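User: Structure tokens for this complex, please. No commentary.
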Amino acid sequence: MSKVQIMTGNQAAAIGAMLSNVQVVAAYPITPQSQLAEIMSQYIEGGKLRAEYVRVESEHSALTVCISASTVGARVFTATSANGLLYMHEQLHWAAGARLPIIMCCVNRGVGAPWTIFNDQQDSFSQRDTGWIQIYCRNNQEILDTVIQAYRIAEKVYVPVMVCFDGFVLSHTMMPVEIPDAGKVRNFLPPYKPHTILSSEDPRNINPVLFPWRRENSEGILCDGYMEMRYKLQAALENAREVIMETDHAFHEVFGRKHGGMIWEYKTEDAELILTGMGSIASEATTAADMLRAEGVKAGAVGIRVFRPFPKDDVREAFKKARAIIIFEKAISYGYEGGLCSDLKSAFYGTDIKAPIHGYVAGLGGRDVKARELAEAAKASLADMKAGHIEKNTTWLNCHTG
Amino acid sequence: MREILWHGRGGQGVVVAAQILAEAAYLQGFKGVTSAPTFGPERRGAPVTASTRISDEPIRTFSQIEQADIAVVLDDTLFKVVDVLSRLKEGGLIIINTPLPADQTGINGCFDIATVDATGIALKHYLTKEGAPVINTPLLGAVARATGIVSLDHIEKALQGKLPKEAVARNFTTVKVAYDETKIRVRDEGQKA
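Assistant:
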């Protein structure tokens, strides 16, 4: 029997973590994540979830608790937003380098200064290069399901996963979400087996200072140097694609829902114009595509679900017939352009995909982005492209740039 | 898709009303429902809005509503401080908590107007919280009557998911009374917004 409840994105994430039977939760409240941390503490305090909730004085400590608990074999969960995530920055690198399958929800919010509590994706985007897998969700069902999927992925490839969803737009918006059966989730997600067991019976020194070259340990075994271990992190992310796809496939078989694995597509079969983005803005772009189709433009949308590892092969396939590509993103690499824009361009290098690409930065600091505005921007870009403006500076959507 | 904007003051329960309507609509069989508060901090007494979207198909748009099909006004003093009508489509429906009849609400333009004295109903049935009348639940009855989107049964079921049994009965009584007492004035097509 399906069990559907109308809930916020924060609640969906909390249910996903509870169904994943997390054992240790450490989080520090920050808008718009606060409700998620509160619900987790209610589950634990109320006895719905047998786990330890560790209260901490900062986000840096929250992730440190998760690193420690994961190192000794616990399944752990944390969540944060914006400056809280940035405060974790050092430990984000540590979690990935130590190859710990930590799951963290990033409830996307813009970064200060100037202060904002509202949504964009500059927070998680700025942590792109810490070695975490990043998955961006487009609705609350996907949030719940992705948290469960994330544990299965992380515990197979030993890389932490950041499950990103837009603050307020999803975190505080209620919509129907089907709650998976707890028994089925237990089967889908077997208990976590750590790669290294740290115990007093078998003392070890984990993550010591490494030297530039490989070196024999005290037992005469030649061990990896820093660079070998870093190469293995890169290889794990590159190989994660297969696990991410398999996980989405297996999830579909058990629960009847699939979210696309690396990317998802909407009406792209015959699309000449493809709108793309990550998270809720990509969902909004599907409505924009419908509006454009009503006006006779063959439009479709592609959602980049997994940003790291970057879905290079998937986008090459999805965009191969596109005649025009328009990217909407809620983050920017200051001094250049949107990061997704750069990544897509580089993914198409050396292929037959020569379609003009226009990049838009939109919705920073919670500025509302409507499907109508995306459709209008797409039409303006199409007119520009037809007039021969193949390359164009990043456009700031709905922003007074005069 | 039908888009509903709830206008009230912080503390009057626009967020919960928007949620209950979404839940009732889902129970009614609409596959796509969303409800959202005004994003950001809110203050008690300050003008606030919340929204409900209701659709036959799952909803893929999460941006804010520009112009609603239906406006629900919990507090008629808001007309002095908020331009409620600017966010209502021409030909749309406005549901107002007021003891006044539609032609005394001062609303001109091409709108259907539904009026109900939700405050009076709440006080008459002792539905109060912290000394103030609870007006969001009776207004759900007015919404059911004026829009026909949701039935009273499904509002009752949605309330059951939110409130203890005794509270459901007290709230639902006011829903039914408001349903019966809601007066609707259909727009005059000749009038322009």
